[in-house]
Amino acid sequence: MELVVLSGKGGTGKTTIAASLSELAKDVLRIDCDVDASNFYLYYEGTDIEAEEFYGGKKAVIDEEKCIKCGKCEEICKFDAIHSCEVDTFACEGCGACVLICPEKAIALIEEKAAYAFITELDNGVISRAEMEIGSDGSGKLVALLRKNGKRFLNKERLIIIDGSPGIGCSVIASITGCDAVLIVTEPTVSGVEDLMRVVALCERFGLYTMVCINKYDINEEITKTIRSFIAQRQLKLVGEIPYDDTVMKSINELRPVIYYEDSIAGEAIRDMWLNIKNIIF
Ligand code: SF4
Ligand code: SF4
């Protein structure tokens, strides 16, 4: 069973919830697919047992010895990535137009290392995760690799919890393709509702079983009502409503899942939500 935790944008509490759920689930394989802002693994102390270079895309490289400085490559580049016969690797999209136009065959596209993919061994299982190189973007290919890598360690675990990327882009699609269920974490703000609608539309398009959790539901009861009606109207499953709780910030600062704080009302609500999810997915 693969459960992906998603949100319409960063900062809604997605990783806080994914970390707590994976503690409650116990025998669980963790995959951190939020590759651009990877922090799921920060909740755990572990040892990297595998590290693999990931080459995500190609970048143009100019051979100075062959270049006659005709400027044709600079003219054709739609990404403004070539100046004075030098390629700005952050701007280069690897489209190959400069390679085709160069009369001296002085430009080649070479694979660029975009990330390291790790398997980190924890006290209770492993986490599959990545660390991006500066300036690299998380790609669907990297997310697919992390999911494949993690599944090699699937043993007695009944559940895979994936911390997905926020938004509706390529890496989110790679996180949810072929999964069994999605938990969308939303919050009652105007932009939160818009973001929720977009992610729900994506999940519907992929025909995924979709559950929703309203985080900090009590910061704006009016918008929470709107979210509840939207969930009912789209026949989604509202599995949890988590109150605002200062302990959550404390738990993030101390990198300890919030369910371990005895007086935490958010932790209590996440425990209740886990019972609901368990009843649905198992
Ligand atoms: S098109 Fe080729 S030869 Fe002309 S400036 Fe660019 S790299 Fe140099
Ligand atoms: S590969 Fe494309 S984006 Fe990169 S420098 Fe050449 S023309 Fe520009």
Describe the structure.
This protein has 282 residues and is α/β, with parallel strands linked by helices. It has two domains: 2-54 and 117-281, Rossmann fold; 64-105, Alpha-Beta Plaits (2-Layer Sandwich), CATH 3.30.70.20. The protein has helices at residues 14-25, 72-76, 97-101, 140-151, 170-176, 190-205, 221-233, 246-254, 265-281; strands at 2-7, 28-32, 47-62, 82-83, 86-87, 107-122, 125-132, 159-163, 181-186, 209-215, 237-242. The strands form two sheets. Strands 3-6-7-2-8-1-9-10-11 form a nine-stranded mixed beta sheet, sandwiched between helices. A hairpin with a 2-residue loop joins strand 4 and strand 5. Helix 1 (14-25) crosses helix 9 (265-281) and helix 4 (140-151) packs parallel to helix 5. One iron/sulfur cluster (SF4) binds next to helix 3.
Low-confidence stretches: none
Mean pLDDT across every amino acid position: 93
Q: By CATH's scheme, which homologous superfamily of the largest domain applies?
A: P-loop containing nucleotide triphosphate hydrolases
- Supply the helix-strand structural class: alpha/beta
CATH topology of the largest domain: Rossmann fold
Number of strands: 11
Major sheet: order of its strands?
3-6-7-2-8-1-9-10-11
CATH class descriptor of the largest domain: Alpha Beta
Distance between the terminal alpha carbons, to the nearest Å?
A: 8 Å
Order of helices and strands: EHEEHEEHEEHEHEHEHEHH
- Classify the beta-strand content into a percent band: 25-35%
Put simply, the count of helices is 9
For the largest beta-sheet, the strand count, sense and barrel status come to: 9 strands, mixed
Please state the second-level CATH architecture of the largest domain: 3-Layer(aba) Sandwich
Rg calc? 22 Å
Counting structural domains, the number is 2
Helix share bin = 25-40%
Bound molecules: iron/sulfur cluster
**Large-scale geometry:** elongated
